[in-house]
Specification:
The complex is a heterodimer of chains A (95) and B (486). Chain A is mainly α. Chain A has helices at residues 5-14, 21-38, 73-77, and strands at residues 83-84, 87-88. Chain B is 38% helix and 14% strand.
Chain lengths: 95, 486
């Protein structure tokens, strides 16, 4: 399946990636060749096959809903790009 | 002293032939001497190593030691280590100091291992040659013109060049087994869920699994004993207690039923790999095993299904890198969207971005059924192929890779060519089974000896059997003892 430049721009936006107009064509052709590889799957009939999401068909295990960790906000925020008063700083979102 | 296996080093430490501090200094000086050539380490933790070695020597003096106490180890830079830089070989995390330890690291620390540093890898473990690292490629100790394989290329090169005694790795589609094959060492991927993924930076969560990269199956068993088993911090880690993997290493192979996948002997397999495999099968026969061909009829679809499932899971996992809480943030963002987009575009390399986009596309409205559901259906067919084969045999043995290590730059211009490198290993991850690669030959090419690996695949959670089979092979051959001339 061949992707157009416009498809790549749309996918990049969904993935919050910036793709330069100059590289979009090359990215489109690379991804198209990978989709050709992927499309080999279509050669097999799978109508009655249940999808396998987990190798052993296991389901998520739950733990009791109780607090087990102590609050380490300051320690964990030491590695943040920008914080103030215990809050993460980002560019202004609301005027 | 640094050329020995963990089992040998452990005996020497116990006899007091040398201390862990002396051993650690020896490895650190080798790293200083050779890391410039191989680029196996991203970070060397010299101070930490010497402190851990001193603590290990004290533990030993008090008689509180285990088999791994004082053994110098390296961790793939995908495992979080508290207060140590953990980069995943990405610009995105090039300054990330982890606030906590991965469970694997925590357990090996508790066992008394000495951490020499963090090893190089493909960025976010996405690659089969270690060429996608932000910190530059790793070189194969057998021939520095060639790749060590990937994604755990730094761990494999470090073990092969004796820049550590043993290392950790992770395997999503072959990332422990393929570099082990290319570097002439032993690489072990346990069943999905056998080892906690807590603190292991996620690539594809239904496929990722940690495991040892070592000089022998016995060494792999020693590490497995320390890291395998339930962990309340990872709900996908199975709650079944792990057995003592050392206890069954010496079991006889008399009556062992080995299956060889017919599809893996077909077109595409290099003659040198096939002849090494046939020679290995003869060794197993001489040890009392019977050999028969088995069918894995859907194995040719594993790469296709994998390149939907792994990128889909990766696109979700890597959405956490947004420049807000940790990791790289672009300079002077004009608004929030600009910050997300430029932080991610500048922080990720091209292969990572490509996989995020494939995953995003496969999961997007209108394509989900055709790609993601279809891939999961193929995944079930592949799992059923193994289930059927294991009705007739105990272990499956085939090639790990189609050929020996290729040259740097030879395959990295075309992603599809690179993806097909993992043709024999990927199905094992899709089925969640334990798999390992052990050295089974050397191919001489233009005056260079290049290692050949064979792959052993076991039933669900039958790791002990695989380690037993590999150990018996290594008791009767010496391919695993061969070392490159560093």
């Amino acid at each position: 399946m061949a992707l157009e430049k416009s498809d790549v721009e749309k996918i990049a936006h969904l993935a919050r990636l910036h793709i330069d107009a100059t590289e979009a064509q090359e990215v489109a052709s690379r991804i198209s060749s990978i989709l050709d590889l992927i499309d080999q799957m279509q050669s097999v009939e799978t109508r009655n096959v249940a999808p396998l999401a987990h190798p052993f068909d296991a389901v998520q295990r739950l733990r009791p809903d109780i607090v087990t960790e102590k609050n380490e906000r300051e320690y964990l925020q030491k590695i943040a790009p920008a914080v103030q008063d215990g809050l993460y700083l980002v560019p202004k979102v609301i005027e | 002293m640094s050329r020995r296996t963990v089992a040998e080093l452990s005996r020497s430490l116990a006899r007091g032939e040398f201390s862990s501090t002396e051993l650690t200094r020896d490895y650190l000086s080798r790293i200083k001497q050779f890391n410039g050539v191989y680029n196996a380490y991203i970070t060397v933790t010299e101070e930490l190593a010497l402190a851990q070695a001193a603590a290990a020597d004290q533990r030993r003096a008090r008689g509180e030691h285990g088999p791994l106490t004082g053994i110098p180890i390296a961790h793939k830079d995908i495992f979080c280590m508290q207060d140590v830089r953990t980069t995943c070989a990405s610009k995105m995390l090039s300054n990330f100091i982890s606030p906590y330890n991965a469970t694997v690291v925590e357990r090996l620390n508790a066992a008394g291992t000495v951490t020499l540093g963090k090893t190089n890898m493909d960025e976010f473990a996405m690659g089969s040659s270690n060429e996608t690292s932000f910190f530059g490629p790793v070189r194969n100790p057998w021939d520095p013109e060639r790749v060590p394989g990937g994604s755990s290329g730094g761990s494999a090169a470090a073990v092969a060049a004796d820049l550590c005694a043993i290392a950790t790795g992770t395997d999503t589609g072959g990332s422990i087994r393929q570099p082990a094959a290319f570097c002439g060492i032993t690489g072990f991927k346990p069943s999905y869920g056998r080892i906690s993924r807590w603190g292991m930076i996620a690539f594809a969560s239904s496929l990722d699994q940690a495991g040892p990269i070592s000089k022998s199956a016995e060494d792999a068993a020693l590490m497995m004993n320390a890291i395998a088993g339930p962990d309340s911090k990872d709900s996908t880690c199975v709650e079944v207690a792990a057995p003592d993997y050392m206890a069954t290493l010496n079991d006889s192979l008399q009556g062992l039923r080995i299956g060889v996948p017919r599809q893996h002997l077909a077109e595409g397999l290099g003659a040198e790999v096939e002849s090494a495999l046939q020679a290995a099968l003869k060794v197993f026969e001489s040890l009392g095993a019977t050999i028969k061909e088995v069918d894995l009829p859907n194995s040719h679809l594993s790469v296709s299904a994998y390149y939907v499932i792994a990128p889909a899971e990766a696109s979700a996992n890597l959405s956490r890198f947004d420049g807000v809480r940790y990791g790289y943030r672009c300079a002077d963002p004009v608004n929030l969207e600009d910050m997300y987009k430029r932080s991610r575009s500048e922080g990720f390399g091209s292969e990572v971005k490509r996989r995020i986009m494939i995953g995003t596309y496969a999961l997007s409205a209108g394509f989900y059924d055709a790609y993601y559901i279809k891939a999961q259906q193929i995944r079930r067919l592949i799992k059923q192929d193994f289930d059927n084969a294991f009705k007739e045999v105990d272990v499956i043995i085939g090639p790990t890779t189609p050929h020996t290590a290729f040259k740097l730059g030879e395959k990295n211009s075309d992603p599809v060519t690179m993806y097909l490198e993992d043709i024999y290993t990927i199905a094992v991850n899709l089925a969640g089974l334990p798999g390992m690669s052990i050295p089974a030959g050397l191919h001489t090419h233009l005056n260079k000896r290049l290692p050949i690996g064979i792959q052993l695949v076991g039933k669900d959670f039958d790791e002990a059997r695989l380690l037993n089979v590999a150990h018996q092979y290594q008791q009767h051959t010496d391919w695993h003892l061969q070392r490159p001339e560093v």
